[in-house]
Amino acid sequence: MISLRKIPKAKLGPGSKAGSRFIPLGLVAGPVGGILSALLSNWKLAIFVLLGAFIFYQNYVSFELLKPFGWRTLPGIEQELAVVKEQIQACEEGRTLLKQEIEVTNQQIEKWVALSEKLQDNQAQLSTALVDLKKKSTTELEIILQGPIPQTCEGAVKLLRDAVTNGELIWKTDG
Amino acid sequence: MENRWLAIPLILSLVGCSTAIKTRTETVEISRPVLYCPAVDSTELGRPAALSIEDIRPDMPAGEIAIRYKATVRQLLDYIERLELTLEEYGKFNKSYDELRQELELENPE
Questions:
Q1: What is the tens place of the pLDDT at every residue in A122-170?
Q2: What is the CA radius of gyration of chain B?
Q3: Cβ-Cβ contacts under 8 Å, B65 against chain A
Q4: B13 interaction partners in chain A (CB closer than 8 Å)
Q5: Has residue A118 got a pLDDT over 50?
Q6: What is the pTM of this model?
Q7: Cβ separation of A123 and B39 shorter than 8 Å?
Q8: Residue in A1, A58, A108 to test binding to B, most B beta-carbons within 10 Å
Q9: What is the pLDDT of residue B7?
Q10: CA pair distance B63, B78, nearest whole angstrom
Q11: Closest-approach residue (CA) in chain B for A157
Q12: DSSP string for A93-104
């Protein structure tokens, strides 16, 4: 525990031997020395005044003179807080808007996904239909090639004519 | 002693008001569109590897030539049928895409 020893005022006056032990050289005489001596003799009052000044600075001074040293004041912080609140509000509005837009876009994409899945099913059905048609075509071709062969020229012409008339080689016009 | 009691509120008044900043984090899922157009494998179209008339030789009888011509016409008709079916389905695909596009444009006009 640190205790300060009270020094009689008479011994701390300017030019006194006791005062010269506490005050640096060059400041012994003159008004500065007097002020220092007064502070030392009334150190409680000095600390109280400093404390009061610091509290006043912290609570009521908006111009932050000591900001570079990390000593902020409440009015200064409140000013910054107001700005930050506005920025946060703007961010919050932007975030809400962005979220809504993302949800709308997601809903659209979900519809595209559903359509894509449906079309893939249709494509699979088309592939199956094409394979069936190819099998049917191969069978029909084998039947034609393995059918009776006309032996005369007239028979050959008749074969081709009959193929059209009986619908084997008919050109479908219904699409 | 009374000075100490006086110092306590003064010291407490020096304590800064520090409140932790509450950061709210919210995750929003973003769907990524991948455009995919289903396509039929070209081998499924069943393009004839060869036509029957390619087997015709100079000494071949007229009856066999007629049969090969008939078979060739059949081959081509069947191939055309498969191509038309494919085109028809692709037309439906395109129509479906267009209908959905118009629907979304009506819902969200730019």
A1: 989 999 999 999 999 999 999 999 999 999 999 999 999 999 888 888 8
A2: 40
A3: 156
A4: 55, 59
A5: yes
A6: 0.62
A7: yes
A8: A108
A9: 75
A10: 23
A11: B66
A12: HHHHHHHHHHHH
